[in-house]
Amino acid sequence: MPKAARKKAKDPEGRMPLTEHLRELRNRLAISVLAVVVITIVALFFAKSIMNFITEPLPQCIELEDADPAGNRCATLTQAGLTSPFATYIKVSLMVGFVLASPVWLYQAWGFMAPGLHKNEKKYTRAVVAVGVPLFLFGAYFAYWLLPRAIPVLLSFSADGAENLVSVDDILDITVRMAVAFGFAFELPLVLVMLNFGGVVSGKRMLGWWRGMVVGIAIFAAAITPTDMMSMIALQVPVTGLYFLATGIALLNDYRRRRNDPEAQLGDDEASDLDLTPSSIDGPEDIGRPGRGGYDDAT
User: Fold this and answer.
1) Which parts of the chain are beta strand (E)?
2) Model's pTM, two decimal places?
């Protein structure tokens, strides 16, 4: 028998044995890890330029007496130990590999979940991957744009006469933390739209959350950014705008659903209309049972 004939036909609903799920998970993890490793190896050749790019927002002192006439502080960039530069090279390259390989591992994650989704849900998931990656990258770049304005604020708390020694690892850590936090913050509207398209939350309810969402975004922005007000506002304004944009998309989607199916968008405290019109009851049915009068009633 030909090999092709021995292959089992795929289940149209995507069902498969546990061993097949584990095998598919292994293959997709291998592809994702391979993509990260390949980009990491390529990034190793540019690690020094990437480190210079990351540390550029730090106002560095050429001499100890260097200071801005306005009183702004500067810092001396350091790397302690013989192995620290090489370890930083690896860390920077891994970070670049993970970020630039995000389209690959996001697509592999979608491919693993797709068999359990309906056709329309698969279409939405493709859109999520296509929109989510640019949103995350834009949030990360926005964090890098804020760093030159945030770092001088942090240095301004230094004691008079103290020399600021800032390691490359410190700059890398704060850059990664802010980039990840800003990236996920910019994913908030996408998550809300996904919940709406999945029927979990309505646009009307999202709109009702606006006060709490505005306060929550402000608290998050104050916690993740340095102490200056401008950095907090610079994060709060775009994320709040994206929240209202997601709410508008959800309201339009709800309107489309109601137009196509009036009962598709009922509120949590609403129920569909019931037909309470009384109907006539037929007489007893003759079931032809001897000795009982031929009716289905025992009496």
Assistant:
1) 76-78, 165-167
2) 0.64
pLDDT tens digit sequence for 201-241: 888 888 888 888 889 888 888 887 765 677 778 788 888 88
For 184-214, give one letter per residue: b (16+ CB within 10 A) or e.
ebbbbbbebbbbbbeeeebbebbeeeeeebe
The answer to whether 47 and 89 have CB atoms below 8 angstroms apart is yes
If you count them, how many residues does the chain have? Answer: 299
Q: Tell which residue, 54, 71, 78, 64, has the closest CA to residue 156.
A: 71
Q: Measured between alpha carbons, how far is 239 from 245 in angstroms, rounded to an integer? A: 10
Task: For residue 135, give Cα distances in angstroms to 7, 178, 227, 296.
Answer: 41, 15, 25, 69
pLDDT tens digits for 146-180? 887 777 777 777 777 777 888 888 888 888 878 87
Token pair 């209202």 in the structure block, residue:
244
Instruction: Locate 222 and state its tokens.
Output: 């104050």
DSSP string for 138-192: HHHHHHHHHHHHHHHHHHTTSPTTPPPEEEHHHHHHHHHHHHHHHHHHTTHHHHH
Residue 185 contacts residue 136 (beta carbons within 8 Å): no
